[in-house]
Structures are given as C-alpha cells and as structure tokens.
Amino acid sequence: MTRIKTGIFGLDQLIEGGVRDNTAIVVVGSSGTGKTTFAMQFLMHGIENGEQGLYVTMEESPEQLMKEAEMLGWDMRKHHEKSLFFIHLKGKNFKKMIDEQIPQLVKARSDYDIKTRVVIDPMTPVIWATEDKLQQRELIGKLFYTLKELGVVMATVEEHSRPGEMVGEDVLLPVYLADGAIGLEYYPIGGAFNRTLKIIKMRGTHHGEGVYPYIFARGAGVIIRTSPAEAVKLEDGADYSKVFDEAIKTAEFIKAPESVIGKLKKMKETWTYNYSPEEVLQVMFDSYGLK
Ligand SMILES: Nc1ncnc2c1ncn2[C@@H]1O[C@H](COP(=O)(O)OP(=O)(O)OP(=O)(O)O)[C@@H](O)[C@H]1O
Ligand SMILES: [Mg+2]
Which CATH number applies to 3-231? Predict the structure, then answer.
C-alpha cells in the first residue's frame, strides 16, 4: 500500500510511513496550536516534490496566507497559480458550493494525472454554518468524499474542549467522518513539553500512541520529537551553530537535496531554543531517509 508522506517531520515515522492515499485527515486543536502551520507544511511538501496543492480557505484571503507562509519560511508566491491554487469561500452558502462548485472543480481536474494535496483551513465555518447535526454531517461528509478524489485531504478544526475531555464537542463529527485525526495541544507554561501532539485515530494504521512534544523551526516548520522520554536537558547560553554545521556538512556529504540543506541553513540562523537541536535534526534526517 502506498503511503503519502505528510512532510511534517517526525509524523510519518509514527504512522507507518505516511497517510494512505485518498483519505481525509483532520487536525484538531485550540486556537494557536499550529493547525495552519501543519496544513501549510503538508501542502508545501507535496509542491516541493512535483505535486499540486489546493488550499480551500474561508476566513483568510490567499494574500494573507501567502504572507503568513513567508514568515514561516515557505515561498508560496513562487508556486501560486502554477502548482498552488486557492479557493476562497466567502459568505455562508456552503451547501451550494459543496454540492455544486467543488464537484465541478474536481471533475475538471480529473483528466490531469497529477497528484494533488488538499487543505481545508479552517473547516470550522462549515460546521458552524448550521446547528442541525444531520446537515453538518452531510456537508462535511460530502466535502471529504468529493475532495478525496484528488488525493489526501487535510482539514483543520478548532477545538474548545474542557479539561479532561478527550475531544471537544465541535470536533466529534469531523473526527468521526475522517480517516485519521491528529490532536494538538498547547499548555502555555513554557518548557519542552508545552506543545504536544497525539494521534487520535488513523484507520488501517498501526500508529504511535504516545504524547509527543513538537517545536516550530522557522524555515523547516513543525518537527515532532518522537522520543518523548529523551527530552534534552536545558543549557543556558550554549552555541549550537557547531551542531548545525556538522549536520549541514553531513547533508552535503551524502548529497541530500538542495531544499533540505536550505532548510538546515535557515534553522541554523533562527534557532532560539535553549536546548540542542540534535534530536530534531535526527528526526529530519530520518524523515528524508538520510543516513
Ligand atoms: N518559528 C516559531 N517559533 C515559535 N513559535 C512559533 C513559530 N511559528 C509559529 N509559532 C507559533 O505558532 C502559533 C500559530 O500557529 P498557527 O497559526 O499554525 O496556529 P492555528 O492553530 O492555525 O491558529 P488559529 O486558531 O489562529 O488558526 C503562533 O501563535 C506562534 O506562537
Ligand atoms: Mg489557523
């Protein structure tokens, strides 16, 4: 069975190498947990590897999103209208667009034999469009069903869960209808475990069952620390450029792709964490299959 690499460093290792093709994955988490970053990284990974990307957006305009991407170190503009396309759904008439517009679009693309990744970020407005659970289920179900024809769909959903709840009320339906679900949590208390990820479900996949801390690295994106037991000790004022230099040298020596070396260089410039990047660099090397 082919697995599609998400491109989120560390995630593929937890889900048997990637997600199954033509499936829908939801990323749930409260505001600011990193859902958009996840979605963009997933999309850009495909585009960097010759695939196409479709970004379905409701709240933010393509222009705003491209600016946000730039701050995270991704050049979306370069691919805009070439391999990256936006659908900006304004207004409230989701039913019409899910029933008519999106199927038309998918049909129009069905002749192209090119892999497409789809991002719906955020999907929350579709849920909020109606209070009727049955209608919500129809809308979300149809959206997934139609877009899965193109390739892997990643949808983000806002979560408002109460402490102790496994998943919040709003996300029950999308989690239920999706083939896979990833939960992001943020405890604004500082330290190495303040942002964590867990895999809620992944159909047909033996997945990691831990709670994994992750970090943001400008230029590379999200990196999941897949060995939670080995959180690296904090060291004050240490200079980690040597660790990066070593990694860059190794990457050059084994002829890693230019884009990978570029990511390492950007990370070297912007690393602000007060712990060694060794562990996350290892996760990145593993993700690219570099030894
Ligand atoms: N390079 C970075 N270093 C540290 N933190 C970062 C970095 N990049 C992003 N962040 C953090 O990630 C957060 C935003 O992530 P993102 O926009 O992906 O979240 P979101 O879940 O989509 O949020 P929203 O609910 O607003 O859509 C920012 O608030 C910021 O704190
Ligand atoms: Mg967002």
Answer: 3.40.50.300
pTM of the model as a whole: 0.86
Residue 129's contacts (CB-CB under 8 Å, 6 or more residues apart) are 92, 94, 95, 136, 139
Instruction: For residue 190, report the distance from its CA to the centre of ligand 1, in Å.
Output: 15
Q: What is the DSSP string of 162-178?
A: PTT-SS-GGGHHHHHHS
Closest-lying ligand 1 atom to the alpha carbon of residue 184: 21
Minimal-distance CA residue to ligand 1 atom 13: 32
The alpha carbon of 217 and the centre of ligand 1 are apart by a number of angstroms equal to 11
- How much distance in Å is there from the Cα of 261 to the middle of ligand 1? 24
Q: Where are the domains of the chain?
A: 3-231, 233-291
Is there an atom of ligand 1 within 6 Å of 110 CB? no
The answer to whether 84 touches 76, Cβ cutoff 8 Å, is yes
- State pLDDT tens for residues 171-222: 899 999 999 999 999 987 777 678 999 999 999 999 998 999 999 998 899 9
The dihedrals phi and psi of 186, each to the nearest 5 degrees, come to -135, 120
Say yes or no: CB of residue 195 within 6 Å of ligand 1: no
